[in-house]
Design brief:
globular; Metallo-beta-lactamase, Chain A; six-stranded mixed beta sheet
C-alpha cells in the first residue's frame, strides 16, 4: 500500500541492527537502530540508547562495515534515547528536522519531501515531538518507514504520554501508513503497515 509520497525507486536495502524496547517490554529503554544503504549512501537511523556500543557495532561489522564506512546519520527527533550514540559515527553527515551538519558546516533544508536518492525520502511527521522526521526506504520488498517514535512499538501507544498534540500524531501516523508497507518503530520490532496499526 503506497502513495505518491513513497520514493519512486526500490533499490535500497534495510537492516535492523538492534530491536529496541521500553521499560514495560524490556530491562530498560533502548532504541531500534537501523542501517540503510542505497548507492553511495550508508546510513544509520536513530543510534540511540542500547545496552552498549557493541549492540550497534557488532551487527554492523557482520555486514562488513565499520563506523568509518557510514556516510550519514539520520535522527528522527532530539530525545536522548534516540540519539545518544550518534558520536559512534564522527565522519558522517548528521541529519535532523532542520538541517544537515558536518564538521563545522550546516546546510538548512526543509525535510518534508527531501529526496536523498530515488529510493530514500524524508517526511516531516510531527506528533511525538514537534521535530519528528520519518525516512521512507524503497526496497525490493516494498517501502519501509523508519518512523522513530511515531510508534514506540506495534501497539502504539495509542495515547503517547509525551506527544504534545495527539491529533497531529494521528495525522502523521496516517500519512506514514499511506506511504509504507512496513513500519520500523522507535522501540520495537518492525510491523506491517496494513491491518491493525494503532492510530
Amino acid at each position: 500500500m503506497t502513495t505518491t509520497e513513497a520514493p519512486s525507486g526500490r533499490s535500497a536495502t534495510h537492516h535492523v541492527l538492534h530491536i529496541g524496547y521500553t521499560s514495560s517490554t524490556g530491562p530498560g529503554v533502548a532504541a531500534t537502530v537501523s542501517y540503510v544503504a542505497d548507492g553511495d549512501l550508508r546510513i544509520i537511523f536513530d543510534p540511540g540508547m542500547v545496552p552498549g556500543p557493541s549492540a550497534i557495532l557488532e551487527p554492523l561489522a557482520a555486514l562488513g562495515l565499520t563506523p568509518a564506512d557510514i556516510t550519514d546519520v539520520i535522527l528522527s527527533h532530539h530525545h536522548p534515547d534516540n540519539i545518544v550514540n550518534a558520536a559512534l559515527f564522527p565522519q558522517a553527515r548528521m541529519h535532523d528536522h532542520k538541517a544537515i551538519y558536518q564538521g563545522h558546516t550546516r546546510t538548512d533544508r526543509d525535510p518534508d519531501g527531501h529526496v536523498l536518492t530515488d529510493s530514500l525520502k524524508l517526511l516531516a511527521t510531527p506528533g511525538h515531538s514537534a521535530q519528528d522526521i520519518t525516512l521512507l526506504v524503497g526496497t525490493a520488498g516494498g517501502v519501509v518507514a523508519l518512523a522513530g517514535d511515531l510508534w514506540w512499538r506495534a501497539d502504539g501507544p495509542a495515547d503517547d504520554p509525551v506527544a504534545p498534540d495527539r491529533e497531529q500524531l494521528r495525522r502523521s501516523r496516517e500519512r506514514v501508513l499511506a506511504a509504507a508497507d512496513t513500519i520500523v518503530p522507535g522501540h520495537g520490532a518492525p510491523f506491517a503497515g496494513s491491518g491493525d496499526a494503532v492510530l
